[in-house]
Amino acid sequence: MKTFLSTILKHQGRTLRRRVQLLSDLHLEIGQQYLSYTFPASAPFLLLGGDIGRLIDYDRYLKFLETQVSRYKKVFLVLGNHEFYGLDYHAGLKEARRLVEEPSLADAVILLDKTRWDDPNSALTIIGCTLWSAIPEEVSAIIESKINDFKKIDGWTAQTHNEIHAREAAWLREQVAQAATEQSAERQLLVATHHAPCVEGTSAPRDTNNPWTPAFATDLLRQEGWAGIHTWAFGHTHYSTELVRNGVRLVANQRGYVLPGSTAQKVSGKSHNFDPGMTIEL
Prior knowledge:
InterPro entries: Calcineurin-like_PHP, Metallo-depent_PP-like. This protein has helices at residues 2-15, 58-69, 89-100, 140-146, 149-152, 158-180; strands at 19-23, 45-48, 74-77, 109-111, 115-118, 124-129, 188-193, 229-233, 241-245, 248-252, 279-281. By secondary structure, the chain is of the alpha/beta class. The chain has one domain: Purple Acid Phosphatase, chain A, domain 2 (4-Layer Sandwich), CATH 3.60.21. Strand 9 and strand 10 (248-252) form a beta hairpin. The two termini are 31 Å apart.
Protein backbone atom coordinates (compact mmCIF):
# COMPACT_ATOMS: atom_id res chain seq x y z
CA MET A 1 0.00 0.00 0.00
CA LYS A 2 2.82 2.40 0.89
CA THR A 3 4.53 1.74 -2.45
CA PHE A 4 1.24 2.25 -4.30
CA LEU A 5 0.58 5.57 -2.57
CA SER A 6 4.11 6.83 -3.21
CA THR A 7 3.71 5.97 -6.89
CA ILE A 8 0.46 7.93 -7.07
CA LEU A 9 2.02 10.92 -5.33
CA LYS A 10 5.02 10.80 -7.63
CA HIS A 11 2.73 10.77 -10.67
CA GLN A 12 0.75 13.70 -9.29
CA GLY A 13 3.97 15.60 -8.73
CA ARG A 14 5.13 14.96 -12.28
CA THR A 15 1.94 16.45 -13.72
CA LEU A 16 1.93 19.49 -11.43
CA ARG A 17 2.35 22.73 -13.36
CA ARG A 18 4.83 25.30 -12.14
CA ARG A 19 4.84 29.08 -12.34
CA VAL A 20 8.15 30.86 -12.81
CA GLN A 21 8.58 34.62 -12.47
CA LEU A 22 10.86 36.01 -15.18
CA LEU A 23 12.97 39.16 -14.91
CA SER A 24 16.13 40.17 -16.72
CA ASP A 25 18.31 43.17 -17.41
CA LEU A 26 17.50 44.90 -14.13
CA HIS A 27 20.86 46.70 -14.33
CA LEU A 28 20.98 47.37 -10.62
CA GLU A 29 24.51 48.72 -11.06
CA ILE A 30 22.94 51.91 -12.46
CA GLY A 31 22.83 54.14 -9.41
CA GLN A 32 23.59 51.13 -7.16
CA GLN A 33 19.95 49.99 -6.86
CA TYR A 34 20.74 46.57 -5.33
CA LEU A 35 19.14 47.49 -2.00
CA SER A 36 16.45 49.91 -3.18
CA TYR A 37 14.87 48.16 -6.17
CA THR A 38 11.71 46.24 -5.26
CA PHE A 39 9.22 44.14 -7.20
CA PRO A 40 6.30 41.84 -6.29
CA ALA A 41 6.83 38.11 -5.79
CA SER A 42 4.23 36.42 -8.01
CA ALA A 43 5.46 32.80 -8.30
CA PRO A 44 7.34 30.25 -6.18
CA PHE A 45 10.35 30.31 -8.53
CA LEU A 46 12.27 33.37 -9.75
CA LEU A 47 14.36 33.31 -12.94
CA LEU A 48 16.87 36.15 -13.22
CA GLY A 49 17.94 36.16 -16.86
CA GLY A 50 21.21 38.04 -16.64
CA ASP A 51 22.45 41.64 -16.43
CA ILE A 52 21.05 41.86 -12.93
CA GLY A 53 24.16 43.76 -11.90
CA ARG A 54 27.93 43.39 -11.75
CA LEU A 55 29.82 40.79 -9.78
CA ILE A 56 32.38 43.41 -8.74
CA ASP A 57 29.53 44.85 -6.65
CA TYR A 58 29.73 41.58 -4.74
CA ASP A 59 28.37 42.57 -1.32
CA ARG A 60 25.43 44.54 -2.73
CA TYR A 61 24.64 41.80 -5.26
CA LEU A 62 24.63 39.31 -2.39
CA LYS A 63 22.24 41.48 -0.37
CA PHE A 64 19.87 41.60 -3.34
CA LEU A 65 19.91 37.81 -3.62
CA GLU A 66 19.43 37.41 0.13
CA THR A 67 16.23 39.45 -0.18
CA GLN A 68 14.98 37.20 -2.98
CA VAL A 69 15.67 33.86 -1.29
CA SER A 70 13.50 35.00 1.60
CA ARG A 71 10.60 35.36 -0.86
CA TYR A 72 11.02 32.43 -3.28
CA LYS A 73 11.49 28.69 -3.02
CA LYS A 74 14.25 28.82 -5.62
CA VAL A 75 16.06 31.58 -7.50
CA PHE A 76 17.74 30.77 -10.84
CA LEU A 77 20.54 33.06 -11.99
CA VAL A 78 21.82 33.36 -15.55
CA LEU A 79 24.98 35.41 -15.99
CA GLY A 80 24.73 38.29 -18.45
CA ASN A 81 27.60 40.15 -20.03
CA HIS A 82 27.37 42.96 -17.46
CA GLU A 83 27.96 40.51 -14.62
CA PHE A 84 31.56 40.27 -15.87
CA TYR A 85 32.27 44.01 -16.19
CA GLY A 86 35.42 44.98 -14.31
CA LEU A 87 36.66 41.37 -14.25
CA ASP A 88 38.03 38.86 -16.70
CA TYR A 89 35.76 36.00 -17.75
CA HIS A 90 37.24 33.30 -15.54
CA ALA A 91 37.40 35.58 -12.50
CA GLY A 92 33.74 36.41 -13.09
CA LEU A 93 32.77 32.74 -13.13
CA LYS A 94 34.73 32.18 -9.94
CA GLU A 95 32.95 35.07 -8.22
CA ALA A 96 29.55 33.85 -9.41
CA ARG A 97 30.17 30.37 -8.01
CA ARG A 98 31.35 31.85 -4.72
CA LEU A 99 28.27 34.05 -4.62
CA VAL A 100 25.70 31.26 -4.91
CA GLU A 101 27.57 29.21 -2.30
CA GLU A 102 27.29 31.93 0.34
CA PRO A 103 25.77 30.42 3.53
CA SER A 104 23.22 33.23 3.73
CA LEU A 105 21.63 32.01 0.48
CA ALA A 106 21.01 28.56 1.97
CA ASP A 107 21.48 26.71 -1.36
CA ALA A 108 18.38 28.46 -2.70
CA VAL A 109 20.13 30.11 -5.68
CA ILE A 110 20.92 27.92 -8.70
CA LEU A 111 23.61 29.30 -11.01
CA LEU A 112 22.65 28.46 -14.59
CA ASP A 113 26.12 28.15 -16.10
CA LYS A 114 25.74 25.11 -18.33
CA THR A 115 23.46 23.74 -15.64
CA ARG A 116 20.44 21.46 -15.65
CA TRP A 117 17.98 21.48 -12.75
CA ASP A 118 15.08 19.04 -12.40
CA ASP A 119 12.26 19.96 -10.04
CA PRO A 120 11.77 16.92 -7.78
CA ASN A 121 8.11 17.81 -7.26
CA SER A 122 6.95 18.46 -10.83
CA ALA A 123 7.83 17.84 -14.47
CA LEU A 124 9.78 21.10 -14.76
CA THR A 125 13.34 20.97 -16.07
CA ILE A 126 15.42 24.14 -16.41
CA ILE A 127 18.62 24.24 -18.44
CA GLY A 128 20.59 27.42 -18.81
CA CYS A 129 23.77 29.26 -19.71
CA THR A 130 24.75 32.72 -20.93
CA LEU A 131 24.86 31.60 -24.59
CA TRP A 132 27.32 34.21 -25.80
CA SER A 133 26.43 34.91 -29.43
CA ALA A 134 28.24 34.02 -32.66
CA ILE A 135 30.01 37.02 -34.20
CA PRO A 136 30.76 36.74 -37.94
CA GLU A 137 34.32 37.64 -38.87
CA GLU A 138 33.21 40.37 -41.28
CA VAL A 139 31.61 42.43 -38.48
CA SER A 140 33.94 41.51 -35.62
CA ALA A 141 35.94 44.74 -35.88
CA ILE A 142 32.92 47.04 -35.69
CA ILE A 143 31.42 44.99 -32.86
CA GLU A 144 34.64 45.13 -30.87
CA SER A 145 34.67 48.91 -31.32
CA LYS A 146 30.96 49.49 -30.56
CA ILE A 147 30.11 47.00 -27.80
CA ASN A 148 31.24 47.74 -24.25
CA ASP A 149 31.92 44.08 -23.46
CA PHE A 150 35.23 44.38 -25.30
CA LYS A 151 36.26 47.36 -23.18
CA LYS A 152 34.86 46.36 -19.80
CA ILE A 153 35.54 42.61 -19.62
CA ASP A 154 39.27 42.22 -19.17
CA GLY A 155 40.91 40.44 -22.11
CA TRP A 156 37.61 39.87 -23.93
CA THR A 157 37.82 39.45 -27.72
CA ALA A 158 35.49 38.39 -30.51
CA GLN A 159 37.48 35.16 -30.79
CA THR A 160 36.93 34.33 -27.11
CA HIS A 161 33.28 35.31 -27.44
CA ASN A 162 32.85 32.90 -30.36
CA GLU A 163 34.74 30.06 -28.70
CA ILE A 164 32.50 30.18 -25.65
CA HIS A 165 29.41 30.48 -27.86
CA ALA A 166 30.38 27.27 -29.65
CA ARG A 167 30.86 25.39 -26.38
CA GLU A 168 27.62 26.64 -24.88
CA ALA A 169 25.54 26.04 -28.02
CA ALA A 170 26.88 22.47 -28.26
CA TRP A 171 26.07 21.90 -24.59
CA LEU A 172 22.52 23.19 -25.05
CA ARG A 173 21.97 20.90 -28.03
CA GLU A 174 23.15 17.90 -26.03
CA GLN A 175 20.89 18.76 -23.12
CA VAL A 176 17.82 19.31 -25.30
CA ALA A 177 18.49 16.03 -27.13
CA GLN A 178 18.86 14.20 -23.83
CA ALA A 179 15.63 15.69 -22.52
CA ALA A 180 13.88 14.56 -25.71
CA THR A 181 14.70 10.95 -24.80
CA GLU A 182 12.87 11.47 -21.51
CA GLN A 183 9.49 12.16 -23.08
CA SER A 184 7.95 9.35 -21.06
CA ALA A 185 8.54 11.46 -17.96
CA GLU A 186 6.54 14.30 -19.56
CA ARG A 187 9.15 16.84 -18.61
CA GLN A 188 8.44 20.49 -19.37
CA LEU A 189 11.69 22.00 -20.63
CA LEU A 190 12.51 25.64 -19.90
CA VAL A 191 15.68 26.95 -21.54
CA ALA A 192 17.14 30.11 -19.99
CA THR A 193 19.87 32.14 -21.69
CA HIS A 194 20.95 35.77 -21.63
CA HIS A 195 21.64 36.21 -25.33
CA ALA A 196 18.77 35.57 -27.73
CA PRO A 197 18.51 32.36 -29.81
CA CYS A 198 17.18 34.10 -32.93
CA VAL A 199 17.42 37.56 -34.47
CA GLU A 200 13.98 38.33 -35.88
CA GLY A 201 11.52 39.50 -33.25
CA THR A 202 13.89 39.49 -30.28
CA SER A 203 15.03 43.12 -30.59
CA ALA A 204 13.19 46.35 -31.30
CA PRO A 205 12.53 46.51 -35.06
CA ARG A 206 14.82 49.54 -35.41
CA ASP A 207 17.74 47.46 -34.11
CA THR A 208 17.30 44.27 -36.12
CA ASN A 209 19.58 45.21 -39.02
CA ASN A 210 22.34 46.93 -37.06
CA PRO A 211 25.80 45.56 -37.90
CA TRP A 212 26.32 44.87 -34.17
CA THR A 213 23.13 42.80 -33.81
CA PRO A 214 25.21 39.56 -33.79
CA ALA A 215 26.52 40.64 -30.37
CA PHE A 216 22.98 40.20 -29.04
CA ALA A 217 21.44 37.26 -30.89
CA THR A 218 22.28 34.20 -32.98
CA ASP A 219 19.92 32.39 -35.34
CA LEU A 220 20.10 29.01 -33.62
CA LEU A 221 16.39 28.34 -34.04
CA ARG A 222 16.78 28.26 -37.82
CA GLN A 223 18.74 25.06 -37.25
CA GLU A 224 17.51 21.62 -36.25
CA GLY A 225 17.84 20.14 -32.79
CA TRP A 226 15.52 22.19 -30.59
CA ALA A 227 12.37 20.07 -30.58
CA GLY A 228 10.84 19.48 -27.18
CA ILE A 229 11.47 22.92 -25.68
CA HIS A 230 8.39 24.26 -23.94
CA THR A 231 9.70 27.82 -23.44
CA TRP A 232 12.97 29.65 -24.10
CA ALA A 233 13.55 32.72 -21.90
CA PHE A 234 16.17 35.28 -22.93
CA GLY A 235 17.33 38.83 -22.24
CA HIS A 236 20.12 41.19 -23.36
CA THR A 237 18.15 43.02 -26.09
CA HIS A 238 16.18 45.30 -23.73
CA TYR A 239 13.02 44.31 -25.60
CA SER A 240 10.22 42.57 -23.72
CA THR A 241 8.30 40.26 -25.99
CA GLU A 242 6.65 36.88 -26.50
CA LEU A 243 6.64 35.03 -29.81
CA VAL A 244 6.97 31.61 -31.43
CA ARG A 245 9.84 30.72 -33.76
CA ASN A 246 10.04 27.30 -35.44
CA GLY A 247 7.70 25.85 -32.84
CA VAL A 248 9.58 27.25 -29.83
CA ARG A 249 7.90 29.76 -27.53
CA LEU A 250 10.24 32.67 -26.75
CA VAL A 251 9.67 35.06 -23.85
CA ALA A 252 11.60 38.08 -22.59
CA ASN A 253 10.80 40.49 -19.77
CA GLN A 254 13.59 43.06 -19.69
CA ARG A 255 13.77 46.21 -17.59
CA GLY A 256 16.75 47.87 -19.24
CA TYR A 257 18.61 50.97 -18.05
CA VAL A 258 16.44 52.81 -15.53
CA LEU A 259 17.71 55.49 -13.19
CA PRO A 260 16.83 55.26 -9.48
CA GLY A 261 13.36 56.62 -8.81
CA SER A 262 12.32 56.42 -12.46
CA THR A 263 9.76 54.01 -13.92
CA ALA A 264 10.53 54.93 -17.51
CA GLN A 265 11.32 52.27 -20.07
CA LYS A 266 13.21 52.91 -23.27
CA VAL A 267 11.09 50.62 -25.44
CA SER A 268 7.75 52.15 -26.40
CA GLY A 269 4.64 50.17 -27.20
CA LYS A 270 2.22 48.65 -24.72
CA SER A 271 2.88 45.03 -25.67
CA HIS A 272 6.61 45.39 -25.06
CA ASN A 273 6.56 46.96 -21.60
CA PHE A 274 8.54 45.43 -18.76
CA ASP A 275 6.26 43.76 -16.20
CA PRO A 276 7.98 43.17 -12.84
CA GLY A 277 5.34 40.61 -11.86
CA MET A 278 5.41 38.59 -15.09
CA THR A 279 5.15 34.82 -14.77
CA ILE A 280 5.23 31.90 -17.17
CA GLU A 281 3.54 28.57 -16.50
CA LEU A 282 4.92 25.18 -17.46
